[in-house]
Amino acid sequence: MTATPxxxxxxxxxxxxxxxxxxxxxxxxxxxxxxSRAALHEAWHRYEHAIAGRNALVCYGVKANSNLAVLHxxxxxxxxxxxxxxxxxxxxxxxxxxxxxxVFSGVGKQGWELRQALTAGIKCFxxxxxxxxxxxxxxxxxxxxxxxxxxRVNPDxxxxxxxxxxxxxxxxxxxxxxxxxxxxxxxxxxxPGLEIVGVDCHIGSQITQxxxxxxxxxxxxxxxxxxxxxxITLRHLDLGGGLGIRYTDETPPDPAELLNPVFAALHQxxxxxLQVILEPGRSLVGNAGILLTRVEYLKCTEARNFAIxxxxxxxxxxxxxxxxxxxxxxxxxxxGIPQETYDIVGPICESxxxxxxDRKLPLEQGDLLAIQSAGAYGFSMASHYxxxxxxxxxxxxxxxxxxxxxxxxxxxxxAQERIPKTADGx
Length: 426
Ligand code: LLP
What we know:
Elements: E1 9-10, E2 13-16, E3 19-20, H1 21-28, E4 32-36, H2 37-51, E5 56-61, H3 68-77, E6 80-83, H4 86-94, E7 102-104, H5 111-120, E8 124-127, H6 130-143, E9 147-154, E10 176-177, H7 181-190, E11 194-200, H8 211-229, E12 236-238, H9 255-268, E13 275-278, H10 282-285, E14 289-300, E15 305-309, H11 318-322, E16 328-330, E17 339-345, E18 354-362, E19 368-371, E20 392-397, E21 400-405, H12 410-414
Parallel strand pairs: 4-20, 5-6, 5-13, 6-7, 7-8, 8-9, 9-10, 9-11, 11-12, 12-13, 15-17
Antiparallel strand pairs: 1-2, 2-3, 4-14, 14-15, 14-19, 16-19, 17-18, 20-21
Helix pairs in contact: 2-3, 2-9, 5-6, 8-9
Ligand LLP binds at residues 61, 63-64, 82, 105, 165, 202, 205-206, 240-243, 279-283, 318, 322, 376-377.
């Protein structure tokens, strides 16, 4: 990818909306996450358009980018939220979310998290095992409430994506075997602490075809029929997240291309009364963000040329973890500089600390680079490895840029650490 509509090139300089990126780098330093508000809105509107006039709810998958400002944007646009921890619940509430638009996924929900979510009054618990169902039922009963539940079923379909982000195969840890779901639903029906409200699945991430979703849908609809025959009726069907984005040359389907056949199938099976829930993360934020970084050194060896930049795997972990490909574009390409093939690497002491490989770029020390498609699973997966402060984050709206998370100070990184007093007083 080169320029994109919300990160255009004007007068030879890459911008975020109307702001030249070098200006942001001067003002806020690098590495810097830069998000486009218009891009967030545009991605949202694609979903909004796809569900217009339907009984459907889009619950933003918070883990993709959980900055409060991003959550607040989606909350104002009408999104619900898909959370996977008590921490994420606290975040969405702090961003103003309505708890009855919040669904709670995840295989390892702890007792305190279940209590916290029951107290908040969330829309649904996406329960992932028999043991979790039992724990939730007991806690709800003890609190004198009924927990709204869906079972997250594992439909055993291949999402045809990276194995680390594929979740709907039977060898994955996620969900309950769809064949065991009817008996679990029957158990749930008996329990005074539970209220059955739906069924859920999430088959993976960065999915670029519709067919895996429709395969999963078919299996879910069969399950819904079987449950109805047992007198168990549901209110909603949650198909999870997972729609992909373009990192390089992918052509992922639009939300409407996914949802139209889903609504058609529900209609055909007489299930039009079911609310459809989706949990998109990446497709709402991925291409709304870049990671701005500066070339510290060029190091040309016999084997390879390295551009050592000030961002690293602690800022953007996807290449190290999944060998993920992100576009890299010079912010202000200078004429007369020869193109060389570089590996773009960070300063961390690991060979796995690379952001891109084999990129033909005209580079000089001090140049700025934009790592593209970094809005999803970028900052949210960042760490402090090598005692590196997290990058700052800014949200651009036209000519305005808001700092939505300032750069951390070094002192903050170890402020919570304590040196114990030893017996000999040293
Ligand atoms: N719902 C559930 C239950 C999930 O587990 C996920 C993502 C989503 C929704 C949102 O999926 P999305 O629409 O963003 O694909 N760190 C990886 C991606 C991991 C996705 C985990 N689950 C990456 O950087 O590619």
